[in-house]
Amino acid sequence: MKFFKEKYVNLGAALVVSAFSLGLSACASGSSASLSQEPKADSVALVTPLAPVSASTAFETVSVAENKQIRVVQKPTLASLDFAAYYNNPIRLAGKEEKPENYTGKMANAKLEEYPFPMLSHLSAAMPDVVEGRASISWEPFAKLIYAQLGNDSLNILLNSVESVKWEEPEVFRAFQNVTRTWGVPMSDGSVEWWVEVTPALWTGRAPFYGKLNYKSYGETSEIFNFYLTGEMNGDDAMNWARTLSSYWYPTLNTDLEPHTAGAPWENGKPFAVMRGNPMGTPMWIGFEVPAFRMSEEAVRAKFVADSLANSGEVIPVDRHLDTSSAFRMETLNSLKGSCPANEATAAFRKSLAAQMAKLPKEQNAWAEVDAQGNKVEGGFLWFRRNANYLLAEKISGQDSLHNPLPRMVELKQYLDSLGIQLLVVPVPVKEEIYGEKIVPGTAADLCVNPEGRAFTQELLEAGIDVLDIYPSLMAAKAGDEPPRYSYQRYDTHWALPGEIAAMELLAARVTQYGWYAESGAQPGLLNMQETSILREGDLVAHLPDSEKAKYPADTLNVMKIYKGTETYKGGKNAPILLMGDSFTGVFESVDQKSGGPGSLLAYATGLDVQVATSWGGGPGVRGRMMKMKKDLQSKRLVIYMMTARDFWQSPMEWDALR
């Protein structure tokens, strides 16, 4: 059964960006606001001494506890929010204060004029007069915005080269310094000069210094820069900003957004979003607060009353019954048996993959595709260490009780069974599992390289759990790849449209096979689908050595977008299906172009409303969110648990019990 169009790859070249970003073309053409501002001291606790931050992008930090902060931004411009997120963020700095074992300090005593930064001029230990009082920004998000709007990656490449300088110690993986602040200085000819503050790592013993980038921007860049500094967001834009940031930082910093009503009290403030990060095993929280988005006590009480009424009256319970047929499960189980044997070929694959990983610095979590001769493949894939570790896993159900997913899945099934709700588990194979021939050159393209992962799927089925095995469909989709378009994104951990469509075809077919589908009130054809494209920065780029990051710009991806009439689709509380899980449920659904992820595509294909619950911090964490949605569960016939299979092995998030 085909639910989606056969031809979904011939998409238009239009780039979909957020509503806020779309304002660039309109607002940037207006009169330019002055970039000169009065300086204002920043109250953030600093790792190294930093100069005052300009009022236009400054934020005030309120220390709530040792591991909690609230960052208050007066004006919700994109520049201000980005700066509050990137500047001296303890989540981003965690673990970077320790001196690398192989650091020798070869140039520790170098004088300022001897610093190896040919891309900079006018080096000084003091802040230059030309930037005093001007708006400082974080360069990473701004450089990405310039690339998204203009396709120009020059600023990103040059600033990245500053952070890539290794002081004659190339074997040290960790960055010796970061560009912590950037200033754009408009010139009389309409160009923009760029000045930077460079903050060396604490373990180098060097002080921050300043310099001018040997580079100027012209034309539209200055207009975009002005709008970046002055265009204010509304509450919805700000939430989209926080959601997107959390999703991109997740692979590197294990970030997620806490369930929180925007503008309601949290600790000692009223943030519109609360981000949790856990990059080093110790969770930290940062709330982002904007005075204009705060809720008054009256509004909080009104919201509480409204939520109480909604929770008590909105959800319509359904008279449901379980489909107890085991035919599909047994068919899947029989197809798995003997399909992925451990043999000489898989042993050779594991040995070669382990050898590749052994060559990586222990702090490097991603690396580039190489050919049989060991040369990097231009435009090739990036690989993720945690995904590769999953391919080298031992018996998955043999892990300790905190990390073994099998009893947790059984527990979840028993709970949902007691409510009369069907459970369908959808493990998403990692990219490295589908493209074994690319990560280990010489591997047969059809070799099943992950016997232990496939064996665990078999164990789930044998335990009575309904599992949708999408591995064969993804392998088949790979055969239709048309480079540079693949079933998974080249620079990212997630699938691309061909892989997503292959999985959703199978999932939609499974949903329509349940005995209760005929009485579910499905309305196929109610929604409509449009084709478009987006620009997405790969989430693996941040894991590369600093000198390689600029080689992997944002990728243009073909995507779908689902509409109900003229409005983008979003499932409601009375949806008969809950799709819950990790970022695979959220990518293209609640970030990027939105309303084109698995939830929207499943609703389009089946004619059933689909509610989505995403834990960006990992699949194991979404169980707790489901338990907080008990009222919503009254309307559910099916819970689909979709998550990356890598978290079945040594997940950094423990599988805590249902409660």
Give a quick account of the main beta sheet: strands, pairing sense, barrel closure. 5 strands, mixed
Strand content: 15-25%
Stretches where pLDDT falls below 50 for ≥5 residues?
7-55
Identify the overall geometry: globular
Provide structural commentary:
- It is a single chain.
- The strands form 6 sheets. Strands 4-5-13-12-11 form a 5-stranded mixed beta sheet, covered by helices on one side. A 5-stranded antiparallel beta sheet has the order 6-10-9-8-7. A 4-stranded mixed beta sheet has the order 1-17-18-19, with helices on one face.
- It is of the alpha+beta class and 659 residues long.
- It has 20 helices and 22 strands.
- Helices cover 31% and strands 18% of the residues.
Keywords:
single chain; 659 residues; alpha+beta; five-stranded mixed sheet; 20 helices; 22 strands
Describe the SSE topology:
Layout (H helix, E strand, L loop, with lengths): L14 E2 L2 H9 L11 E2 L12 E2 L5 E6 L2 E5 L5 H9 L3 H4 L26 E5 L11 E2 L1 H12 L3 H10 L13 E10 L5 E9 L8 E9 L2 H11 L4 H19 L2 E2 L15 E5 L6 E6 L7 H17 L13 H10 L7 H15 L7 E3 L13 E3 H7 L13 H15 L2 E7 L2 H4 L1 H4 L11 H12 L8 H8 L18 H17 L14 E9 L18 E10 L2 E2 L8 E5 L1 H4 L11 H9 L3 E5 L7 H6 L10 E7 L15
Parallel strand pairs: 1-17, 5-13, 16-22, 20-21, 20-22
Antiparallel strand pairs: 2-3, 4-5, 6-10, 7-8, 8-9, 9-10, 11-12, 12-13, 14-15, 17-18, 18-19
